[in-house]
Amino acid sequence: MITLNINGKNHEIDADPSMPLLWALRDIIGxxxxxxxxxxxxxxxxxxxxxxxxxxxxxxxxxxMQGRALITIEGETENLQKLQQTWTDLNVxxxxxxxxxxxxxxxxxxxxxxxxxxxxxxxxMARNICRCGTYQxxxxxxxxxxxxxxxx
Amino acid sequence: MAPIKxxxxxxxxxxxxxxxxxxxxxxxxxxxxxxxxxxLKKETFNPNLFIELLPDGRLILVASRSExxxxxxxxxxxxxADEMEADWSRVTVKQATGxxxxxxxxxxxxxxxxxxxxxxxxxxxxxxxxxxxAASKTWKVPETECVAENHFVIHxxxxxxxxxxxxxxxxxxxxxxxxxxxxxxxxxxxxxxxxSIDIHxxxxxxxxxxxxKRVPNLKFAAIKRCPVTFGTVKSFDKTDVLKIPGVIDVIxxxxxIKPFGAxxxxxxxxxxxxxxFKGKEALKIDWDYGANAExxxxxxxxxxxxxxxxxGKVNKSKGxxxxxxxxGDKLIEHTYQLPHLxxxxxxxxxxxxxxxxxxxxxWAPLQTPQAARKEVADYLGINQEKVTVNVTLLGGGxxxxxxxxxxxxxxxxxKEIQGPVQVVWTREDDIQHSYYHTxxxxxxxxxxxxxxxxxxxxxxxxxxxxxxxxxxxxxYPLGGEIGSALNVPYDIPNMQFETGKADAHLRIGWLRxxxxxxxxxxxxxxxxxxxxxxxxxxLEFRLQLIGSDRIEKTKEKFKYDTAxxxxxxxxxxxxxxxxxxxxxxxxxxxxxxxxxxxxVAAAIEVSIVDxxxxxxxxxxxxxxxxVVNKNSVRAQMEGAVIFGLSLAYYGxxxxxxxxxxxxxxxxxxxxxxxxxxxxxxxxxxxxxxxxGVGEPGVPVIAPALVNAIFKATGQRYRSLPLSKHGIV
Lengths: 152, 728
Ligand code: FES
Ligand code: FES
Description:
heterodimer, A: Ubiquitin-like (UB roll), five-stranded mixed sheet, B: seven-stranded mixed sheet, globular
């Protein structure tokens, strides 16, 4: 049995310890908001927050995830919720498939760097592919969220 | 789609063998066969298949086309809601299953809004007319004293009644003929920036794409397919595979020789996707590579290039091209080469199929649910009525999900294991076993007179055709594959278009914008080259080439208007500041193309930094007739820039000995945020019927970029991707 703390709740799962977190989330626990896009750490669709940092869950065996605070797109954290609001205001998604991963990467960025420069945003978001090409709106949404936060 | 037709309730109820209090009417293409007893008992107002109004005022609108990011679930339903004077916040959208009663459901060719706009308006207007009539009956006042507004009918006296409260009366009424449509100035949703109806689900991870669908007792499958297209299994060893925890079974998948049939291979069935993937990697298979094992793209493109240097089959000829070339003061000829591409929608192909008791239910991301239904019924040898195809959200389609081969695979396996199974393609599978965008060589030759006017234009192309997927052995392009080159709207006295022979060795299929990508590339780049040869500014030269304002003679319902083509080009140039002084080292390249009946131009500003191209901004202008949803048109243009740049920079599927060499996003690269330029989109205001939006933005990007690089560096790139030239 492996215990995973996801979105503030403990889940006991009986699975191959080498199974990547992505598949435990999707196929065993039922959090399908975290997506498979490449399985090789190349696209960012599978991003989750691990102790506040964005990691590719397709590369993380569940055995290494015990004792970590994991947050998925279904979870709630301050920056994620703010970003979700801006994402809605700016109509960011097209097909939407990459967006959970984009939102998680953006959340991790704002967790560390509340007022990122354009270059900071480019660097942080370079791990996420959007095949529909929503980058311009993602960048704007991150900038708007950061500003809102500063004004408050 | 056919007009809305009144079908008597008695006739319908007799057919259904049901008694119900509700009056149900439909468009003439419907048969009601999808309506269940439950549905009828609900006492809802269903003036047609697409509208269901509940007594509590909730309005359910049906989307018959698939959502893949182009906003169709929002656009089409908002058209109904607008004409119906419904309150958008009370609307939910229900996705239609694959069924011919909804008419054509293929979501491709940028045609959903184009083909359905009028019918959707009529449906909404009909429902509104009936609600007004119901209110007039309730109040016993003339209909002319009632108006509909935001989910209410309002009387001149000021009293009002909600739509939900009118349901019980509306269901007793006949469908009116000839309802009046709104004037475009009164549109509330059409032409506005409505957000996607699914946005909340998407950003919270609740949206259900094909990959996210779960049913009880679901098993997962991964399939190892032959590295060479149409190769077959000789033998395989599953010993190691069965030792992997979670693996349940290993099953050989036969090849189904049909355009959308399964490629065949060996499947691993498991309790998780991960175990299925691991099992697949551990499979040892001995393949018979078959007839395509010689296909090496490097050699092939050389052969295609030789083919287009020689006279081909003449598809169209005007004036006398030979004479023009003999008399010309200057002759220019160039050959362009473009590689195979693959779609890589962010969500890989996947499908759940559940075969049980002579029926089958499917859940999958599909652009063509009716084709999937037919394939499944054919494979199982059952009637299509026994097959239900549920369309999930699509995590991108780009043409890949028009080909339901993955649904056939899932059905083969479900039948075998007698339970529900989800087939999941790995990204490597997606890149290595697709229906590829074709590769091509194109030869263009032109003569100029001493004033710089083009007197002759010859275009000769060779490409493996999409037709080969449907008719094995076909080796000349289809009409649709040459149309955009054949009908180039240039005012040149002598023109000829020819095609050369090319055999296909991969499955060839549609990819967003299809053959407009290579055609627009070489036409736009060659035109730019001619401008420099003529010593005329490329914008001015191009406007001259297009010539006078006129409507081109085509058989299509939508007419090709050269004034609109010139207009978008001039606008894009103006918005980009073309002709103004630019920062040192900056240059703007232009391209314009007509496809899917829309006119699009791009102006791209670049400079060269450390021997690499840097894009400063992209200006897009589109004329696509009446705009239903400005937000999605803008989004599609922004997305087209990224799609076009991805193919221009990196897009390349190559093969050696029949095997695709690319694997994943490391070697089939997609533009990422640091490379994504600022994009400005202008949408031309228009009263003309709506035309395509999803595809026409892509073709102009690569040529505008290549033209900009030439202006900045004097270096002309006649083949893609640019990564092989070291400039990106
Ligand atoms: S699925 Fe993990 S990075 Fe692509
Ligand atoms: S929105 Fe479709 S992949 Fe990003």
